[in-house]
Design goal:
The chain is an alpha/beta fold. The protein has ten helices and nine strands. Strands 1, 2, 3, 4, 5, 6, 7, 8 and 9 form a nine-stranded mixed β-sheet that branches. It is globular.
């Protein structure tokens, strides 16, 4: 039985890659933040085919303690480190569209919409508040595109239309992920510059969001909220008992990291007060 996972780190760790030069990997540990950061680049099309992952960069941030807790004493440091990774992948983005993917009515799938609620949108401020000094604010727009079953429209098509309308050069697509290893459930954040196919980890893949489909750079960020668990030959997707807390905390982590990544002139406390 094939284990379904959205995490490139899990795929790579269990793969026998013939094109070894097609993959590079580096892991750094931050003891103060109680996390490790693994940066993987898939460099060749041969390696991409063998791994089933597009050529590009993949960053996996793993919490080495109990996991993602918005009341942790190291939350600020962790979100600052994740923000650094977002900035590195975004490469000098000027206008950002954050897309909170998923279904808010289904708790394990609500990371994206909850994250969108906590992202500091600034596009309207820069355009309408001429009397304010907004020169240090990066232009950020936010959308919650919903899911096909609710809207009748692919999320990718909605995001593309809005991206074109607001002139965004970078899309940050936030979504819940699936993993195959229990130690990654609720303790891992994945970032990639390859975009995302919503629902792919739970065998419900929709039209991808990527530079090819959107016409703008697409950075995907997500947290595993379900795990592929097979028993007796039957495949199941399982979520932890504390999924409400996991989803809420994960959404806050990602939102604060996005806010810090693109509004460096504002402090962690300033940003948190603006979105609370």
């Amino acid at each position: 039985m094939t284990i379904r996972t959205d995490l490139a780190a899990e795929v790579i760790s269990g793969a026998d890659i013939s094109d070894e030069s097609g993959v590079s990997s580096q892991t750094v540990v931050n003891d103060r933040a109680r996390l490790e950061i693994q940066r993987v680049s898939i460099l060749s099309e041969n390696a991409a085919r063998e791994l089933g992952k597009p050529v590009g960069r993949y960053v996996t941030v793993r919490m080495t303690d109990s996991g993602i807790d918005s009341y942790s004493d190291v939350m600020q440091l962790r979100t600052e480190l994740i923000a650094d990774e977002i900035r590195s992948l975004a490469g000098g983005a000027g206008s950002i569209l954050v897309a909170g993917l998923g279904n808010p009515a289904i708790t394990p799938d609500a990371v994206g919409p909850l994250c969108a609620d906590r992202v500091f949108a600034t596009r309207h401020i820069r355009q309408l508040a001429a009397e304010l000094d907004t020169g240090e604010l990066t232009e950020v727009s936010v959308i919650r595109p919903g899911v096909l079953g609710q809207t009748g429209i692919e999320a990718s098509d909605l995001v593309k239309a809005v991206c074109s309308r607001v002139g965004a050069d970078t899309v940050i697509a936030v979504d819940a992920l699936a993993c195959g290893e229990t130690e990654n459930l609720g303790r891992t954040v994945q970032l990639t510059d390859t975009g995302i196919s919503p629902g792919s980890g739970v065998a419900n893949s929709r039209k991808e969001l990527s530079q090819r489909t959107l016409g703008a750079r697409c950075i995907a960020v997500g947290i595993p909220t379900v795990i592929d668990y097979g028993t007796g030959g039957e495949a199941m997707m399982v979520t932890p008992r504390s999924v409400d807390k996991l989803v809420s905390n994960g959404a806050e982590y990602i939102a604060m990291a996005v806010n810090l990544a693109f509004q460096p002139s504002l402090s962690f406390e300033d940003l948190r007060s603006l979105v609370d």
